[in-house]
Amino acid sequence: MKLKLLSGLVAALFAAAPVFAFEPFVVKDIRVEGIQRTEAGTVFNYLPVRVGETFTEAQAAEAIRGLFATGFFKDVRIEAEDNVLVVLVEERPAIAQIDFVGVKEFDKDALKKGLKDVGLAESRIFDRALLERAEQELKRQYLSRGKYAAVIETTVTPLERNRVGINFKVDEGDVAKIRQISIVGNKAFKESELLDLFQLTTPGWLTWYTKNDQYSRQKLSADLETLRSHYLNRGYLDFNIDSTQVSITPDKKDIYITLSITEGERYSVSAVRFAGDLVLPEEEYKKLVVIKPGEIFSREKLTETTKAVADRLGNEGYAFANVNASPEVDKEKREVAFTIFVDPGRRVYVRRINVGGNTKTRDEVIRREMRQMEGAWYDAAQINRSRTRVDRLGHFEEVNVETPAVTGTTDQVDVNFNVKERATGNLSLGAGFSSSEKVVLSASVSQQNLFGSGNALTLALNTSKSSRTYALSFTDPYYTIDGVSLGWDLYHRTYDPSNTLSVAPYKTVSTGAGVRVGYPIGEDDSINFGLAVDRTKITTFADSPVQYINFCKEQGCSNDNGIGNVSVNSLVASAGWARDTRDSVIYPRKGNFQRVFGEMAVPPGELKYTKLNYQYQHWFPFGRDYALMLNTDLGWAKGYGGETLPFYKNFYAGGIGSIRGFEQSSIGPKDPVSEDSIGGNRRVIGNAEFYFPLPGAGTDRSFRMSAFIDAGTVWASGDKANLADLRYSTGLAFSWSSPIGPLKFSLGIPLKKEKDDDLQKFQFQLGSVF
Fold it and tell me: What start and end residues bound the annotated signal peptide (predicted)?
């Protein structure tokens, strides 16, 4: 006797009644048929009956329900044959392989990993619903890359042993480009002026990198806010964006964006008043007002005013102060008056400072820069100061601060510092071309955050036709808890300008070691001291300048005529002071940097000289994207105690680090016989450089251009310092934080030169970050 009890195809709703009713029976045996990959034990585990037990209709429904829920089977049937329970299953196919054809925009391994995360992977059970979801997600990814014409065709191929192969065939098509952006309704500003504010743009010579010619909803939203801010900052209080239309051509290759705006009238400010619980004297607030009566209304200045008031209250511990400006508009006079309402809220203190996002950098590296203390009153200025100090470390791309209230309290907050780490290892490669040196190469390997400790280690190699340097240095910026730094240096330098045209011939081989100690004397100020030992072997030649030969004689040259070798030992003590108030180390726009550094060769060394350097650099911000940098570099050196200043300690000028457009070290005193540069004991250099975004790059900060004017010269001992001796140059410079590292170009044109100056107009430098 053979009786079909339940069919999984008919009983898809599981709870439905069976097709054939049957009387309960005692199971004599259980047999499973149709399995290929699934273990029989898996099926047995889902059967609510064992041999010798009675099997009922309810148990049959339960068994089918459980086996379907595993997802392993496409069909399940239960039959009875002479009191033998027979379970017949049809397994779902397994995925044998997943292939991608025509995919170029994405990495195939990354796509497979993404599919695996949603359950679609090789060796797993095939689920068509998951396949459809994966196909839609892949299509969405192509749309986000601007490939609106992408076509995805998915093929499922049956294979032996109940397996399938999945093939994604993709025709990516061309990227849809923005062909036109139009603004309708503008009268006060030209359309071209407004479009220059946008990040989105039509195809240009640089959009292959920025991708700003590809439509993005997020970028368009940001551009609309930029447009709104542009009008509101120029008095157009009633400005409104009426509509935004984005259309794509039928071939899905071109995108057109049309904005309709209403500018409204331009308003001026008639009055600014304060109201509410002021806490502080009203005069304190008036000092913080940036937007003045009589000026054209500017939302930026109004925001700056309310922020300044909130920050001032934050310095007093009022972390949740509400400062809002209420406008009173007079449309007839086109004036607006503002009443700034102040609600200081409750004074709070900081419960805990939390650090997050630092996967490599140790917490202590960040915490030791904190100026806001746990358990102290909340101080917005100290928190901002802490953020600036963490940012200046140079270990992080972003430093964000949040101050959430502590749940269940009214007078406590936590301060959360969230950082995004950047690559702090640097492999720098440099190259330059000139008529004399031909090719100059330099390389350095440095790690500014060694093992996440904040310590710095640098190995540098510089080589050219005239010089070679090996240097190893280490710095621990927090040798003590008070911020005293300790560092050491080892170096071996060989310098032989005999093969160049700009510097008089001689050769030195120097080997030395030194130790450095730095002391912070303020938030922005530090002093440092150092002591180094140096041994230099000097070689002079028959065509060396007379000054070089005489110095060799004084130091006991191997030949009486001063042409030969001599080794000198020196003990060099150094001291310096530095102040740095720049807003950023990588992209400064405001603040200044000052540095005074002096070194002196002291007994028992064989040399006696002193050398001083002073540098002052100031940054002036202009608007949102422009900055002017002014730099001054002064140097002075002299021997003492009747000793001569070593000629290889002379100052030189010219080149990418001083006066661009001139050959390295070509400016200054010359040997009257060979007309080679011999350097001098006084140097003055000045630079003025105006930084601006690269045209076509939008707001991308990785591109930067500058126009510069350089000036400077070197005077020899005994020569009168005359500003008429200054050389001048001008030109353009370009920098790019490329994927392989910082890249810099410079094109300098001399404005004033002497006939014996050597020129070097084009220079570049390439670095790679790992």
Answer: 1-21
Q: Please report, rounded to a whole number, the percentage of residues in the chain having pLDDT higher than 90.
A: 38
Consecutive H or E run containing 622: strand 609-622
CA distances from 483 to 370, 450, 562 (A): 12, 17, 49
CATH topology of domain 94-171: Ubiquitin-like (UB roll) (3.10.20)
Annotate 218-245 with DSSP letters as a single string.
HHHHHHHHHHHHHHHTTT-TT-EEEEEE
pLDDT of residue 740: 53
Q: Where in the sequence of the chain do the CATH 3.10.20.310 domains occur?
A: 2-91, 94-171, 177-262, 268-343, 349-421
Contact (CB, 8 A) for 347 and 316: yes
Architecture of domain 425-769: Beta Barrel (2.40)
Whether pTM exceeds 0.85: no
Q: Using the 8-state DSSP alphabet, how is residue 20 labeled?
A: S
Q: Which residues pair with 276 in a beta bridge?
A: 342
Distance CA 4, CA 12 (A): 16
Per-residue pLDDT at 738: 63
CATH H-level, domain 268-343: superfamily: membrane protein fhac (3.10.20.310)
Look at residue 440 in the predicted model and tell me its pLDDT. Answer: 54
Q: Is CATH 3.90.1170.10 what the domain over 2-91 is classified as, yes or no?
A: no
CATH homologous superfamily of 177-262 equals membrane protein fhac (3.10.20.310)
| Cα-based distances in Å from 433 to 494, 679, 746, 758, 769 | 20, 22, 12, 13, 23
The helix/strand/coil state of 39 is: coil
Please name the fold of domain 349-421.
Answer: Ubiquitin-like (UB roll) (3.10.20)
| Residues of the chain where predicted confidence (pLDDT) is lower than 70 | 1-22, 424-444, 462-466, 498-502, 586, 695-702, 737-742, 765-770
The string of pLDDT tens digits covering residues 586-645 is: 678 889 999 999 999 999 989 999 999 999 999 999 877 789 999 999 999 999 988 889
The amino acid sitting at 442 is S
How far, in Å, CA of 271 to CA of 333, rounded? 13
**Three-class DSSP labels, 498-547:** HHCCCECCCEEEEEEEEEEEEEECCCCEEEEEEEEEEEEEEECCCCCCHH
Contact yes or no for 237/268 (Cβ under 8 A):
no
Residues with Cβ within 8 Å of 137's Cβ and at least 6 positions away in sequence, in order, are 114, 118
Greatest CA span in the chain, whole angstroms? 126
Nearest to 508 by CA among 668, 646, 671: 646
Q: Determine the pLDDT at residue 16.
A: 38
Q: Where in the chain is the domain with CATH 2.40.160.50?
A: 425-769
